[in-house]
Amino acid sequence: MAQCVQSVQEFVQDSFVPMVAVLCSDEAERLTRKNKLNFAELLRPFCRLTSEGHLRDPNNQLQVVKNFRICVTKVAPGASPQPSGAALSPGQRRRLNQVVLSCQPLEGALSTAVAAGDYDLSFNDEALKCSAPWFSSWRDTLSEVCASKLFTATTPWFEAYRENFLQSMPSSDHEFLNHYLACLLVVSSSEAVPVEEFVKLSQEQHRIQHSGDYSTPKWFIPNTLKYYVLLHDVSQGDEQRAEAVHEDMKQRYGPQGCYLLKINSRTLPAEQNEQIPDPWSQYLHRSDPHSQEQLDDDPVPALNSRADESGGEAVEEAVSADNEGGRPDPDSASSPGADAKKGAGSAEVTPGTHGACLTLGDHDHIRQFVQEFTFRGLLPHIEKNIRQLNDQLVSRKGLSRSLFTATKKWFGGGKAPEKSVSEPKSTSGLLYPPEAPELQIRKMADLCFLVQHYELAYSCYHTAKKDFLSDQAMLYAAGALEMAAVSAFLQAGAARPYPAHYMDTAIQTYRDVCRNMVLAERCALVSAEILKSQGKYSEAATLLIKMTSEDSDLRSALLLEQAAHCFINMRTRMLRKFAFHMILAGHRFSKAGQKRHALRCYCQAMQVYKGRSWSLAEDHINFTIGRQSFTLGQPEKAVQAFKHILTNDGRQTAAQQGAFLREYLYVYKTVVSRSGVRLPHLPLPCIHSAATRVYFGHERRLAEGEKQAATHVSLDQEYDAEQASMWCKLEEQLVASANRGGVPANFQPSQCYLNSQTDNQRHPPAVVEEPVVVEVMFRNPLKVPLALSRLSLLWKFSHDGHAADGGEDAAGEELGNNLDAEEQETTPRDDLVTTETIPDFHLAPEETKTARLRLLPHRTGCLSITGVVYDLAAASSPEMPDDDGKAELVVVSGKQDLKIRGPRLNHTKEDKMFVRYGPDRRLQPIITPPMPLMEVFFLQFPTALLCGEIRKAYVEFCNVSDVSLCGLRVASTHPDFFTFGSPSAGTPLSPASAENCSAYKTLAAAPGSAPARQTLVSADDFGPASDVVDVPVGGALQPGQSAQLPLWLRGPDREGVHEINFLFYYESPEKGTKISHRVVRHSVFICASRSLSVQASARASATAPRRGSHQNGGGTLVFVDVENINTSEAGVREFHIVQVSSGSRHWSLSECVNPAKEKDCKVSSRERAKLCFRATPCKPHQATSEDADMFTFADVHLGGERIVSSATPCGDFFFRCRRTSESRRADACPSGPRTPSGARNPSPDAGKELLRALHECDRLDLDIIVIWKAYVVEDNKQLILEGQLHVALQTVGKEATSLAPKQEAQEMVLLKFKSEPPPAAASPPTQLSRLIKSNLHYSEAYAHDFTRDSVCVVPVSLVLSNCYWTDVDVTVDLRHKSSSSEWSECTCSFAWVGQTRYRLSLCPRQTRHLELRACFLAPGVYNINTHGVCAAPAARQDGDAQAQVAQNNAGPALIVISDQ
Fold this sequence. Notes:
With about 1450 residues, the protein is of the alpha+beta class. The chain is built from 30 helices and 56 strands. The longest helix has about 40 residues, at about 360-395.
């Protein structure tokens, strides 16, 4: 918005100043031309008076004139009359166009910022950068601007236009403000007869004014003031003669009517080094506003109402050609309204060349002359004419003595003026004669206004307005209304407000009635400034918008721009209205040929629309910015504007976007050809740098025949953080195993696949001669296809020791494929890195697509991948038909950088306070020396197994590198799934057909049940107790060597789909390399189907051992329940239980005690079989072996062959499953057995020892192996499926199963708001009820003659056995009544005779016999197991006795008593 250094009052005063004409003799003109100035130009910098003037009004009141200024111009009479001043001449229009064009924002000027809500706007030359899309984005949230502080943006082009427009106003007959009040007659003192020259000039002035031959200039009053100036050249003239002539002039014209002006006091040779200021440079751009003959006489083409457009375009082209880079010269752009602003001067005017013959004393002489002329000549002349006019008007109208007094009577109360104008009867035919009283009033009002007597001027204007309206002289009335409003505003301390409706009426009359847009524009410009000074920005904007029309694009553009600035300066800023009107202004500027101003307006409007989801508006603005920038010779900015259109997700149609793309490519190609840049940056397609993935190494080979390659890692796999953590744990296990159990401090997990979720803070290692694959994600944001060709990677390479972050060469030569053409020709590239190129890469509309680009390094060093390079073209599509196929395909070459930002840092306090990001070095690998490379293949690897099924497969290891490998190991998430067998087992080198062959080692055996065959083996024969398995390849694999090993698999115990992961580890024989080891991953999914469910339990035998037996305490019975839970999914209908084996350190199966003597045990679908075996402790010499990790395997075969369970693979899976179950039990029960809270033990240590002893007594630690076979017919071939299930019996009396426990989801714990009751006393542990085993030995049938003896006494032997390895106190009570109601009817008429209560103590594993007698009174069936046995561990000397616990009974003991 226009921002003057002056106040609004000063601006209005300077817009209407007294006009003074100048007539010079030829000699006087020659004297002034020594300074490259005419006389009017010589006076122009000194026309503002620095002191106050005074005059008296008709009431003899002293009036002070402050800051008074006059306008001195050279008389240029014109003979051709102008058409009432309704329009500017073509020369004036061209002049205004040139003034606006020459005023551009200065580079480097301080910006004026306006903040409003979320917006931050800038108005200066940097606005192009601030608002354009290539500038950085604005802050998201900005503080509100203080309401009392308003910011405005200076628009010097508008100020220059306004100043020149007001000074170029054509003279009009309805007003006298721009009529000449006086005439300066200038004659040189060197004339022969100066007085005669004055006479000639006086006659010339009289002829111009009164002859009627000239229509211009116009004179204020007939008796024009003539002021005689004698110009004296001090350097050449005779000063005494000049003084004499001056004295003569005083006698002729009076001392107040003439003046002697001395100039040219400076002598150039003597004072060459003196620096004299040049105050004329800022004024010389102004042409004489009333001497337009020079402009009008120039050969200008015929101009219509759009004359300003063509003139602006011509000037635009001229200035653009003169100024390099398309920018105007800052020295030639200025504002004429203020000293601080430079105007648009002529090209030939150079600062410092004017006034070369003038000294500072001459400057003072000129200033003194102007002041003398004004105070002693002009102001008294104006005062005299005001009095005369006042007297004439009073005498003509018969009013009171003073018009001023009369008007005060009529209008002193501030009568409200009319607010509307009636429709005129005639608008063109009414003309007042010069002597008309109405014009005399207007003339007096103008005189009062020019000398700052605004109160009297307002009264006169108001009187004239009423007269004009009554006569329907609308042009005169509008002029009176305009000046009345201005006079009311300028009155100091006036009670009446500014009558804005006067101005509105005047503008409407000028525009609609009089059809005079020039006067309407002047009125609008003045009124808008007044309204803005009062803070009425809304009214000012409305006024300016109303003045826009189609007759002048330049005026409309300037006024729309000012209206937009009014919207931004309101109390509640209207940002969208500002932007909208700036776009309208830019459009009108473009039509007027003001391309630079149009570009500036669009750029400022972009500040509001940018980033606000106004996509269509943004595209339109950017397209216009691109067009204008390219037209102005700024293709770089045009490229940036088009770039934003194409990269933004716009809503344009496909055809429109295709046009945008073609135009962008054309402009871009022009920029590249001019700049000479080999690889400029391209905006299309969009690259998602953060999604870039990198893979190091060869891609895995696919399956070859029956071989299945290891899955390893590929770019086709999605990254899973949980999987990555799992692989890292497996690798840690392998590294710990390779380093004797410890993980090195500098251990880093192997990463051959990097993405945004991996740890990329370190330089990843890559191996020489192994490819580096970079997957780049491209996105086409347009609705038209894109065609890319010759797509490849850009890289930099530095040798060992020269690497630095970012790939820069710190101490040596840095090589790459993105340098200049000359360097590329002289420096080899393929011997460093081979770059793969994709010839064609097409992107469909709005498609996101990835491209995999490869590099093959050949030397060690540091490789830095910097970007991609390609050729871009617009692909043809049905939506964009070519013009008969003749459209030339525009192809541009360029690049895009791959800049990846690391993760946000949040470790230190500074990181949390500031936004900091860590490094991401996934594209900066370190190329290491050659390393071994292994490939893994699997043969006959199944995808589905039955639970527990044993299957034999083969694995092949191939060394495909030139370096040998060693230390081959494997770790898995399911270590019990596979085994390579024990080292002693023979392994065939190649797989064989095994339809009827068993995977087990089998021996022939006699049919039927036989005692178990026992084998003592060591657990160390089956490998160490670790999840890491050494692969028995027999040493190192040489380059090109392969090894094939058998691999036994066992189906998981739980049904479902299982993901089983293998991680193979190998390393190089050379130590100290940058890559210590390498790994190969393999993931397989196994579908496990249900087979058999085995449940086993152990109970102590109820039969007492025979006397003299070596088995103290008898044996243990093991019950095995086998159920077929298969649903015939694999075609299996029945299973054959061929053998049951055991493995334990202390126990072993001895025989099968099933009563059925069947040859084989078959279990069909949903059937169940129960097997019973006797388990005995191992032999003493086996149990006391020096090696504590010895296991006894016992095989009880149920068929005609015996499977050696201690051999591979049965023994391997036994130990692997045993380790898995032990680790699972350790995780579930991390602490030992606890002392029950209900047991009364005063000493905690004693209670723990007791429970430990009882637990050891019940401990069994016996693993049952159930081996089964199933026959399946597939493809007319009978296949034998084999498998084994394991059941771990830990304690006697506790059932175990082969099914893996299901992982149940943790239940939600409800909140409890009430205290729970105290828990009940815990019952004694179950071990205390099994301390003593009791058996009754008696005759089951006994005959007695009750007729002879009514009492039958039967001897009974009670056998008590201590089952534990501790002393036990026992109490036997024969009077105890059985609580079982099942045999209550069998206990009648029966009693024990003799001693009925015994107390005794049994040593560990001791057996005692008690001889009892039972008395019967009648024959019948009796249950004699009615005694009660209570026992407790023997009390220690330092402890209290334990409470005895009732022991479990063996069951009913029936005896039949018969009568003989």
